[in-house]
Amino acid sequence: MISSTPILFIVLCLSAILSVEVVAFAPTAPAPVSTTSINYQSTTIQTQTQTQLQLKKQPVQAPIRPSKINKIIVEEITSLNELKYFLEEDERPVVIKFYAKWCKKCQLVGRQFDRLAMELGDRIVDQQLIDGDVRFAQVEYNPKSQAFITEELQIQGVPTIQMYVGTNKLLEGGSTIKKTRTELTLIEGLNREGLLQRAEDADDGVLTGLIEESFYDSPDFLNEEW
User: What is the reported pTM?
Assistant: First the structure.
């Protein structure tokens, strides 16, 4: 009779071997994939892409810069004929500065004169000509213009500021810009007829007399047949 103890031992050993092999060859289940992280990353990438596209589509706006005054227009006058033609070629009021380069006070008044011309005169802004309400001119005192200034126009010193409407002197402004600014404020609301009348009433006759004399003394007038 065979003992049951060895047989039981053999069966137990076989069972242990089989169980180990089953565990060893059992397929390993794949680790669960987090759909949340994938969705989050996809959303982030999509948002960044949309942002980049929006930045590319947006036009680049140039910074707004203030207008730049490149030059003020001040006419240089050296003779009676030049002054006459300049005053008659336009209906706007004219402010004229009589000055000397060596005069310290003329330099101070000149800066005030330039500021006024910048505000109200013809000027070039951003390379474009802008017409002002007032025209500006200047006459330099030197050996060539001395007789024209002191004898013909009867100006006794520099700096001197004068204001004209046509050939009629509207204002003898003296050596400051203050009177000129005040007069420009007073005539601001006048129409053309009112401005001409005010200038005729204020005119001292110096320039108009010179123009009449130069007209009768001209060769064309003397040789004209009546």
Answer: 0.68
